[in-house]
Write a structure and sequence with these properties.
The protein is α/β, with parallel strands linked by helices. The chain has a single domain, classed as Alpha-Beta Barrel (TIM Barrel). The chain contains 9 helices and 8 strands. Strands 1, 2, 3, 6, 7 and 8 form a 6-stranded parallel β-sheet that branches. A two-stranded parallel sheet has the order 4-5. The radius of gyration is 17 Å and the shape is globular.
Length: 280
């Protein structure tokens, strides 16, 4: 019963913050301020335009690896960013697959099975209250070599919260991850892509780097398996970070889409990897 209530509340939050959450590919993030930039709502994924190529984000950052930006922090300290990383650098056709909001025992195991079948590693940004219910899935992620990141405890809109609440949301999640996964997370992602100064500062204090995305599948809108596949294929390019979800609603389309697009990406010469902190 508690899980159903959680998912219902999560869907309501997503619907209420659609202008934020659906805008990852437009790069609409809070750039070091206290309030998120609110972009226009995305066009519908239905109809003949569903396969149109995803436009590169107009908001670009330095690469995720090989980062040559601000001076490096002192050893053992994470620098405070003013913007999240959106993409990565690397030789050849390298991409990241990321999954938010889980783990969910109905969908996450199927995603892990597909990744294992093709010997691919991915990054899972988990919510603490979901992870607390499904610790065995975090243990499996560790065993399979995946990266687990912090996506807060209850998936709130951080720009509406004070520092104390934000810290609690992040710290509680990191504790669960450390206990179930085996180590504290090194990456975090703000719910809905709504970042603010406090989130960057607190994340750095906890030793985490902020990671956003380049290609948003918008799978949370359940647009259909083929549409999700087309969005990944059309957005595929060296260095992109793909956003999908393994919880927060019916994710059966996301499960089926992964089984379709993953072998196609690999056949096209893409190397699917996980984020590195060589720049830190």
């Amino acid at each position: 019963m508690k899980k159903d209530q959680l998912l219902t509340r999560r869907r309501a939050l997503i619907a209420g913050a659609a202008a934020l959450g659906a805008a990852g590919t437009a790069g609409a993030l809070a750039l070091g301020g206290d309030e998120p930039v609110r972009p226009a709502a995305p066009a519908s994924a239905a109809g003949p335009q569903a396969r149109s190529a995803l436009k590169p984000s107009a908001y670009r950052l330095q690469p995720l690896t090989g980062y040559g930006g601000p001076p490096r922090a002192a050893p053992g300290r994470t620098p405070v960013r003013h913007e999240p990383f959106l993409r990565m650098s690397g030789r050849g056709r390298t991409m990241l697959l990321t999954f938010d909001d889980g783990p969910d025992p109905r969908y996450t195991p199927h995603i892990l099975d597909t990744l294992a079948e093709y010997d691919v590693r991915a990054t899972f940004f988990v919510c603490g209250e979901m992870a607390d219910w499904n610790r065995k899935l975090l243990s499996r992620m560790a065993d399979d070599g995946h990266i687990v990141g912090n996506h807060t405890w209850s998936h709130p809109l951080l720009t509406t919260l004070g520092r104390t609440r934000i810290r609690s949301e992040m710290e509680r999640t990191s504790h669960v991850i450390e206990d179930a996964y085996g180590e504290r997370p090194q990456w975090f992602r703000a719910p809905y892509g709504a970042w603010n100064r406090a989130a960057f500062q607190l994340g750095a204090e906890m030793g985490m780097e902020p990671l956003a995305w380049t290609v948003d599948t918008l799978d949370w809108t359940t647009p259909g398996t083929r549409t999700i596949v087309h969005r990944v294929e059309d957005g595929a390019a060296p260095g992109v970070v793909v956003l999908s979800h393994d919880a927060g609603g019916d994710r059966s389309q996301s499960v089926r889409a992964l089984r379709d697009y993953l072998p196609q990406l690999l056949d096209s010469g893409y190397h699917i990897t996980v984020p590195s902190r060589r720049h830190a």
